[in-house]
Amino acid sequence: MTNIEQIEGLLFVAGDEGITVAEIEHATGFAKPAITTMLTELATRYEQDEDSALMILSTENTYRLATKAAVAPVLKRYFEAPLTTSLSQASLEVLAIIAYRQPLTRIEIDEIRGVHSGSTIQKLVLRQLVTETGRLNEPGRPILYGTTELFLDYFGLKSLDDLPAIDLAALSDAEHLAPETNLFLNAFQDKLKGNREEN
C-alpha cells in the first residue's frame, strides 16, 4: 500500500465530516508537510483525470472527498428515489441502529456496521426518516443523527419508547442482530410493501 493510498482511504472513511492534517498524521505517522504535499498531488490527480468523479475539498485545514459537479444530476436522481421504493438491507440496518442508539454520529454507525454508511444515511435524510439533531462537542464537531416525527408516524409509534425492546449490545454486532431487531426490520419492510400496494 502506498502512502497516498493510505491518505485516500482515510479521506473516504472520513466522509462528509472530513479529516484534518493532524488526524492524518496521527493515523499514519507521516509528517505534516508530506501529508499536505500528498493531498495536493491527490487533488491534482483527480482534477486531471476526466474519468474520475472525485475531487478534494478543503476548508479550515479539513479535507473532504467529494464528487465533481458534473455528476450532480446522476446523484440527484439516485438520492431522490421515492419513499415507496423498497429500502435496501443496508438502509434498514442503519435506520435500526439510529432508532435504537440515537443520537449518534456517522462514524459510530460505521463502527457498528463495519462499512462506510455516509450515502445510506444521506438517503434516509432525504426520505425524512432521519435528521441531524446537533453536533458532538469534539474535534471536527461530527453531526449527530436521530429519527424524525415521520419515522414515528410511519410506524404508528407515539414515541421511541414504543420501539420493541432489544438487547442494545446486539446492535454493536450487525452480524448477530437480536431477533427483536430482525422483527423490527421485517416489520419495516412489511410496512413499505403495504404502502406500495396501497399506491
TrEMBL record:
Q: How does it assemble?
A: Homodimer. Homodimerization may be required to stabilize the binding of ScpA to the Smc head domains. Component of a cohesin-like complex composed of ScpA, ScpB and the Smc homodimer, in which ScpA and ScpB bind to the head domain of Smc. The presence of the three proteins is required for the association of the complex with DNA.
Q: Which family does it belong to?
A: Belongs to the ScpB family.
A single Gene Ontology CC term:
cytoplasm
UniProt organism field: Lactiplantibacillus pentosus DSM 20314
| NCBIfam families registered for this protein in UniProt | SMC-Scp complex subunit ScpB
InterPro entries on file = ScpB_csome_segregation, WH-like_DNA-bd_sf, WH_DNA-bd_sf
Q: What is its main location?
A: cytoplasm
Q: What does this protein do?
A: Participates in chromosomal partition during cell division. May act via the formation of a condensin-like complex containing Smc and ScpA that pull DNA away from mid-cell into both cell halves.
Instruction: Give the UniProt keywords, A-Z.
Output: Cell cycle, Cell division, Chromosome partition, Cytoplasm
Protein name per Swiss-Prot or TrEMBL: Segregation and condensation protein B
Biological process (GO), any one:
DNA replication
* Location in the cell: Cytoplasm
A Pfam family (short name) is SMC_ScpB
